Automatic annotation (TrEMBL):
<dbReference type="InterPro" id="IPR055140">
    <property type="entry name" value="Thiolase_C_2"/>
</dbReference>
<dbReference type="Pfam" id="PF22691">
    <property type="entry name" value="Thiolase_C_1"/>
</dbReference>
<dbReference type="InterPro" id="IPR002155">
    <property type="entry name" value="Thiolase"/>
</dbReference>
<dbReference type="InterPro" id="IPR016039">
    <property type="entry name" value="Thiolase-like"/>
</dbReference>
<feature type="domain" description="Thiolase C-terminal">
    <location>
        <begin position="247"/>
        <end position="390"/>
    </location>
</feature>
<protein>
    <recommendedName>
        <fullName>Thiolase C-terminal domain-containing protein</fullName>
    </recommendedName>
</protein>
Amino acid sequence: MTATTRTAPAGRRRVAVAGVALSDCGRVDEATPYALHAQAARRALADSGLDRSLVDGIASAGLGTLAPVEVAEYLGLRPTWVDSTSVGGATWEVMAAHAADAIAAGRANAVLLVYGSTARADIKARRRTSNLSFGARGPLQFEVPYGHTLVAKYAMAARRHMHEYGTTLEQLAEVAVQARANAALNPEAMFRTPVTTDEVLSGPMIADPFTKLHCCIRSDGGCAVLLVAEDYVKDLAKPPVWILGAGEHTSHTTMSEWEDFTVSPAAVSGRLAFERAGVTPADIDVAEIYDAFTYMTLVTLEDLGFCAKGEGGAYFADKSAVPVNTDGGGLSACHPGMRGLFLLVEAVRQLRGEAPGRQTRRPDGSLPELALASGTGGWFCSSGTVILGRG
């Protein structure tokens, strides 16, 4: 089944992505996070061709004491629907699902998802320091005293996968190599110089088995996505991209409550998204997957059903596999914090044919029909998966 054959359930409106945009990204020393929010929002509205007066919903997280109230005020919006769900990198896929449900049910008409962060600039200017943990209250109090950092948690999970399935350091390194190769084709990517497997493996150790290039970059940047009811499609500046299905799932906070380090919450969010969209992994033409660390890409591909459990390394190395993180991902393009919204922007651009130099195509040369964006939050604590389609 493809996007063009799916219809909305009776009584529910279809939901389209009307506009997408990035703010300035990479090294942005002179802007505030609020300014990046505004820049991305203006650009997304311009991309849609709609007036901002139509926006009656806003979703934002990660900025201010009362997000999204402060962001809405800064943007000059007075929404009647808001969402401030914050589940790490999966936030934006989860928010997109919530917004799509609200629009489909008639509780909102046009919802703006918007994000901006100056994580890199703040550290450079000594306005903040790098955080080693998310805090030491609640369940985390039993882990933080032992120096169990976020990167260490991902590293432990990667080592378990290597032990269980024979995944190799070279296979993990290939994820970083391919991300940089994609970024080399993306003029908006922060790091574009190709890297080799040997360079990944020989880099400074961060948390065994992760060297520096196994880990995401730190950048500044923001982006925005505008979702609208089907009623507005006739007024759009560009053909719509439709939200076909979405799923969300949370699994654990403490590592002791994680039943299997080799299974991510995408195993549930992906299954729900595919069921609701009425498609399968084999139908997907391009996949944008959260990649704060190389291991995330492999295990998420497995859990979404693109390959069997334990086969992620071999699958990713197969050049006939689904194109992944076509903009360079968090490993090379940008990673200002909660990167999940960037996945939706790139997925829409690929479906529209707006990714010059890195544009993916189907075997017959046509543009992709179906795209997937899957965000991950915390240390595989949460997942949101969204399936989008043309037509």
